[in-house]
Amino acid sequence: MNNDFGKVDLLIRKRSIKRLIQLSYMTQAILVVAAINNLLVGAVLSPIVLFCVFIFLFCIPWLVSLDKYSVAVKVLIYSITTMLGFLAWQGFGIFDPALIGFCTVLVYSSIVGSKKLLISLITIMSSTIIIIVITHDMSISYNFTNKQIYGIATDTIIALASVGVASWLLHSDNLYIINELNKSHQKNIQTKLEVEFNATHDSLTGLYNRSAINSQFSSICKQCKKEQSPLSILYVDLDNLKNVNTKMGHVIGDEILITVATRLSDIVSAQYICRYGGDKFLILLEGDKSQSEVIAKEILLSLSEPIAINDIEVISTCSIGIAVSNESNHSFEQLIIESDSAMYKSKHTGKNQFQFFDPIYYQEFNLSKKIADSIIDSISNNDFELHYQPKINLETNKIQGFEALIRWNHPDLGSISPVTFIPLSEKNGSIIELGQWIINEACTQTKKWVDAGYHDFNVAINVSSVQFHRGNVDKLFRDILEKIQLDSKYIQIEITESLLLDDNESDSINLSFENIKKQGIQLSIDDFGTGYSNMGYLKKLDIKYLKIDRTFIQNIQSNPQDLIIVKAIIQLAKNLDIKTVAEGVESLEISKTLKELECDIVQGFYYSKPASPDIIEMCWSLDNTWIISN
Q1: Are 307 and 255 in contact (CB under 8 A)?
Q2: Which regions of the chain are under pLDDT 50?
Q3: What is the distance between the alpha carbons of residues 211 and 277, in angstroms, rounded to a whole number?
Q4: Can you tell me the distance from the alpha carbon of 515 to that of 561, in angstroms, rounded to the nearest whole number?
Q5: How far apart are CA 350 and CA 98, in angstroms?
Q6: Most distant CA pair in the chain: distance in Å?
């Protein structure tokens, strides 16, 4: 923008110089004509003076060549003023037509000169008129008295001063208008540039945004393809930004994004970086696989460094997927798809690492996408069903309750494990609808069993942390229990201990737990011991059951460390008056060992696989006796 205005100023200056030289040549031509005219009438002095001025004006082009434009202007103006004054003095004095030229000089000087130059000209012209009046040949008869002549001279001076002042004021107004127009034009250009910038750049990080990808990145891809040079795309996805936004607020999250953008720009030029989404970045590299690997390692190292924000250190690692161009995937769109699938693989195999694209990743990615996209439809089509796995009281050898476990028989893909589709549903948000369906279905089935005469049992329902983030889990249970008239003592909610760790500062989570407790629904901690156990919440939330993860149970007889851990958990629970549930019991020997350790409840394939309600009722008597159905 400044360059545009500089070009305009340069053009104006060139035109002003051109006009100045033209005026000097025109003045010289007038001087020649005037000199010839004076020679014809027999004058001697006038042609000599006019010729001298003629010669003097040749210095104007010379001054311009020396870049002394203002000096050249003054030379021209003073030369013309002197010439006009001399012609008037030699002619008819204050009645000489030459004095009319003073007005033209004043107008021109107000345009190209300064206020100081204008004042000096008015002074010189006024002095010239006075001198002409005093020194003029009085032998010429004007038919005016001296008093009248001096009056005319005064009027002429006033007229010249008025012309000069008026010219200056008009020119000042013109300059003001031009200046305001320039400001307005500059502001419009600035606004246009800002609009264009915001249309193609991310407002937070200043990097290219998603809308600029096709125009900015595609051209680079085409150029690389034309030159047959290797090209790579790095798909960078931050690992824990969502958790930061939830726990610390979006202001901190934005600061992390800005810092990440800066660190990426320190490694790769910003013109090759795009903020592709909320916590996603695309990086375009002109290089082969080895060069991409070097850059990826630099990025992982840089982003693993803590980010200091408001005296808090936050670490935001990333997962990177890399796609390298070849003859079959050299289109920009294809590279994005491949790098995205590689990133997905990187994130689901440990995070804080990079993976190069492999065709099998693409197949896995498409399969996962198909699964995730069909969850909602499968709820409507009743493709999901709940199976129930019994939990046995080791002291009485009778049914203590069941865990409701979802199963999905996809119409095209067949049976899909919850380990596969639950994380996908949490990622795309369909866990909200799916979780509500599970709650309604499990409570409804429990009501059927109660009405059939079964008592002294409960059904554990797994609730995702995503559902708790919605803040309406307590309402979902209250509404369904009231609707079907089921006592809350028959329902148990299972949560992971990671929820207690991640959301121990969340008011909405705490409120949900408080309302659940008031409703009389019991809480159970699933997979206890596999994460960062939050002991304080075991009592604060009035936890009734601790489920010991199957990884400790399966090798309890052969691994002394697992035995020690299980024994410690059981002892801790007893001290806190919390019952323990061991999952993954697959043999009688493991069951006996757990009974010796005074574990309260067990569940596993030894007693029964998860089964449909019909199968459950075949093995479950009304006195809660369970016939082992493994």
Answers
A1: yes
A2: 1, 137-144, 148, 152, 155, 159, 162-164, 166, 170, 503-505
A3: 11
A4: 39
A5: 96
A6: 150
